[in-house]
Amino acid sequence: MSDDRDGAPEEAADDDASPDGGHASATPSTHTVRLELVDEPGQLLAALRPIADNGGNLLSIYHERGNKTPRGRIPVEVDFEATQERFEGIVEALRSEGVNVMQAGTERYAEEVTLLLFGHLIDTDLSDTLSRIEACASASVADVSLAAPQGTEEASSARLRLEARAGETEAALAAVRELAEEKELRLVEPLTGVEA
After folding, report:
1. What interhelical angle do 169-182 and 126-135 show, nearest 10?
2. How many alpha carbons lie under 13 Å from residue 69 in its C-beta half-sphere?
3. What's the pTM value of the predicted model, to 2 decimals?
């Protein structure tokens, strides 16, 4: 009987101390996702369910209810533990459920750029302009500041802060240029590739 008890711990010890490091990839690590949720009852719970259903261990939730994204939604930051494989499954599951994942880990957005738009921003549907920038796979609108000193009938200006994927800032700017041209807006963009 003592042989059976001695054998079980040895097997478990051998599995954990596997020389090929097979268990290292299955080691959970901490991940962060930044979500954008509609301000409706049940949306936070619906966003957390795919994390739990796919093996994530919830650590913290930062729910910025008093703050809104440019699209009028609520930003939520969720920290959880999961293996890398499960993390990727969780991000896929969130997107499949229609949850807007603004950032997943550190790979989503790595560069920031600020630009100005001038013209009839309100008449040309500012909400549409922001939504179309958001639809660009290379960028996300992090902040918007609108100035319309003569009211909605006259030209206005907006300062946009975009977050772009690493190495994709130029693609994001190209999408904004195309949109500005289509809507007859003037675009002032930062100098890139110039050292101060």
Report:
1. 150
2. 23
3. 0.46
